[in-house]
Specification:
Distance between the termini: 37 Å
Structural class: mainly alpha
Largest sheet: none
């Protein structure tokens, strides 16, 4: 990437891909059609996304009742 490049990370919860495709065509750039989450729950998925670790490694999983 050069200094003129920009990155936008769009994180959405409970939004189906077909709805996103229908209403977000204005968003330019690369889109990944086969992306997977480390969890089906929001908190562990976001914790994993921003830390680069699995939910079980950072304690944000279903067996941890603190969240």
């Amino acid at each position: 990437m050069n200094s003129d490049s920009s990155v936008a990370l769009v994180v959405l919860d409970t939004l189906r891909k077909d709805y996103f495709d229908a209403h977000m065509e204005w968003l330019p750039g690369l889109k990944f059609d086969q992306a997977y989450s480390t969890s089906q729950w929001t908190i562990p998925a976001h914790a994993s996304l921003f830390s680069g670790m699995y939910p079980s490694e950072i304690g944000t999983h279903s067996k941890n009742l603190k969240f």
